Amino acid sequence: MSRVLTIAGMAFTETIRDKILYSILVFALAMIGSSTILVTLSVGGEGRIVKDLGLASITLFGLFIAVFIGINLVSREIERRTIFTLLSKPVRRAEFLVGKFFGLGLTLAVNIGVMAAGLLALAWLLEDRWTPGIFLAVGFTFLELLILTATAILFSTFSTPTLSAIYTLLVFVIGRLSADLMAFASQFGGPSLKTAAVCLYYLLPNLARFNLSGPVVNALPLDFEVLALTTLYGLAYAAAVLSLAIAVFQRRDFR
Q: Which of 189, 228, 244, 249 could be 193's S-S partner, Cβ–Cβ 3.0 to 4.6 Å?
C-alpha cells in the first residue's frame, strides 16, 4: 500500500506541474465566469442559466483532464523508458497502475473542487443564497470522471496516446447517449442494430446516470436510494475497468 501511495503522490506532483493543466483550469474558470454575460440576454432565471452552464463546463474540462492527462500517465513512462526503472524495483505492475489512477483522481478532485467553489460563489452573487446541491452534482461528475480515467488508463496500456484519447471520448459520448441510442434502435432499427445497441448499453457505462445538473439547477427532489446505487455502480465500474487494465498491463512485453 505504501508503494501505491508513493506512486500516487508522484503522479499527483507530475500532473500538478503540467502546464496544460493550468491552462485547462484557467480556461474553465473563465468559461464559468463568462456565463454571466448570458445573464444580460435573459429575463429571469439568471442563476439557473449560470449554474447549468457552469456544471456543463466542469464536466467538459474535467473530461479533458481525465483524458489528455490520463492517457499520458502510462504512455509517457513507456516513451521515456522510465517504466524499466520503475518495474526493476520492487514495484508490481498493479501497484503502478493503481498509484497512477489515485494520483490523477486526486488531481481531478482538486481541480473540480476549485471550479465548483468558483461556481458556487458566482451563483450566490446572482441569487443571494447558497446552492449546496452544486457539490452533489459535482460529486457525481467526479465519479463519472473516475470511470473515464480508468478507461483512459486501460486504453493507454495497449494503444497509442492519440487512439486512446479517441476511444475514451467515444466511450464518454456513447455512455451519455446509450439510453437514447437504445430507444432509437428499438423503434427504428433492424435486428442487427438492436443487438449492437443492447451490447453497447450493457457493456459501456451508463454515464447519463451521473448527470444531476437538471435536478440540482431546478431544485427538484432527489431519490437518495437511487443516488446510493449510482455511487456503488460508479465505483464498481471504475474498479472493474482498472482491473481489466491491470490484466492487460501484466501481459504486456516491454522489451
A: 189
> pLDDT per residue over 87-128, tens digit each?
666 667 788 888 889 988 988 898 888 888 888 887 787 777
- What is the pTM for the complete model shown? 0.86
